[in-house]
Amino acid sequence: MPTIKDVAAEAGVTSTTVSRVLNNRGYISEETREKVYSAMEKLNYMPNEMARNLSRQKSDYIGVILPSVEHPYFSKVLHWLEHYVTKHNYKIMVCISENSREKELQYIDLLYSHRVLGIVVCSHIGETMEHLDSNCPLISFEREIAENIPAVLCDNYQGGILAANRLFDAGCRNIAIFNQPTKENIPAYSREKAFMKCCEDKKISGRVVYTDRLAPLSEEFGNNILELMKKNSDLDGIFATSDVMAANIIRACKKMGKRVPEDISIVGFDDTWISTLTYPSITTIHQPVREMCEYAIEAIVKKVKSEKVPSQVVFPVELIDRESTK
Amino acid sequence: MPTIKDVAAEAGVTSTTVSRVLNNRGYISEETREKVYSAMEKLNYMPNEMARNLSRQKSDYIGVILPSVEHPYFSKVLHWLEHYVTKHNYKIMVCISENSREKELQYIDLLYSHRVLGIVVCSHIGETMEHLDSNCPLISFEREIAENIPAVLCDNYQGGILAANRLFDAGCRNIAIFNQPTKENIPAYSREKAFMKCCEDKKISGRVVYTDRLAPLSEEFGNNILELMKKNSDLDGIFATSDVMAANIIRACKKMGKRVPEDISIVGFDDTWISTLTYPSITTIHQPVREMCEYAIEAIVKKVKSEKVPSQVVFPVELIDRESTK
């Protein structure tokens, strides 16, 4: 692979001159610039980004830690993070934590040692994070980690209200939220709190049905949902805390001979592509993932420039009406 | 952030000694090693991977170019590539090409300039690739690019035969393959060729139905499938060249009042998570994505060590029986 020296020799200039052309620093005559560019083209020279990064002691990578890249919510998040990282001329380094706290911490150390510009952590599962490097901006996505770490969230509480109201408007009077067992700092908990508050206000029967902690894309999870549906066969409306869960509930209803939405209405959450592929398609709460990702990357860029960013930003959600509700 | 110099000062040794401890080079007494490690721990020192990479003129990144990270096939591929890249202690840099040849070439240049160890290109859409750097191993995933670029494929021809035979065994005599318009070097073309050959051999009616070139996860694609299903309402069996397409066909059948599998049998391709989430679940052709990804990363590791790798490896596929076929 040709080096700066080769380019300099080919162009008949010094390496310093080539470097100045590359970095657009100092005065260079148009003629010299032309000579250097021709030499680069002739030798098919590629600038060494590694060397440039080292000289400024920062890479141009942004690290992203996700629990999964297969779940449609996180693959949507990854899609838009890559989009905005690339737009800012940075590169994305992807780390899959598989919901393991140990892996998350290992990945954070690894990203630090690669001198990434910043890190976006999606759905952090642990408690306090130790040895955080304050020089490396960290943004928490859809989860609150600690006070000093800016969080990008959607309005989960509002989502719970929209879902409960939609089921109420569909005529449902015996409803449930299907959720994974949650802790207070987890978004799904806000959805649950809002949903139950709404049922209370409207004086209708509302309950929480907890699923097992299974991989959401596994067949086991589908079987678990079917069991729970059989145990709760009196329900006439369900708010599922993800579209994947809603799709599993639709499948369970069909197995049980229940018609959606005639016998039971279902509202999902996220508005991922799966919500338009099932039959019936899924009425859901839209998370503005694109805007949230744009904001997360801009927050890192700002923090790199030592600009201040808000400690928490909450994006509004929206109800999308489809076929799974009356 | 503490540097090697700080660690050396803290431990009372020279920077060279610290570097030798870090890189496990030359003789270092146990006592000195202990002192250096304590100093690192005390200062919370992180080795600078950027600097280490520069000194060996290679990064420890492997680049991956994918058309999408949202499509369940490619998100499965990314999941397993990340798994095996991490297993080899390398890091993954993800580039989303969105099926644009221009973006693919830009990303390849970018990956070269970051001195990646190697590149896996998934579903390359262009023709010949220019200015390929022979120092940087490139592996083509599920697509043949050129003779000098090793390709990792699944047995698409065999997949077409298995699908046609499965429909024949379900009693279907009027069948079609739903495909996107393809070129000869594209895997879906082999599936089509095998499928039509099988129909001919069995003397049953077989046809090719081409969909429009639409984003496979969009609602527009679903509408296109519904239109095509209405135009081909005589069919009693369909081989869809992806599970996502099969899910769209199931949705279209329900909209038309056709029962799956009673009125029409459907076979998908890929065996992604969507195939167990629809109702009925999808009988499909399993691609051994995990094994293919393991092989692709090992091929890059071998090429980095200047070992030879086969120019093409074809992995066997398998029929997975589920509910969408009689």
TrEMBL record, chains A, B:
Classification via PROSITE patterns: HTH_LACI_1, HTH_LACI_2
Lineage: superkingdom: Bacteria
InterPro entries cross-referenced by the UniProt entry: HTH_LacI, LacI/GalR-like_sensor, Lambda_DNA-bd_dom_sf, Peripla_BP_I
Keywords (A to Z) from UniProt: DNA-binding, Repressor, Transcription, Transcription regulation
Residues covered by the HTH lacI-type domain: 2-56
tRNA-binding among keywords: no
Alphabetized SMART domains for the sequence: HTH_LACI
Gene3D superfamilies found in the cross-reference section: 3.40.50.2300, lambda repressor-like DNA-binding domains
GO MF annotation list: DNA-binding transcription factor activity; transcription cis-regulatory region binding
The protein, known as: LacI family DNA-binding transcriptional regulator
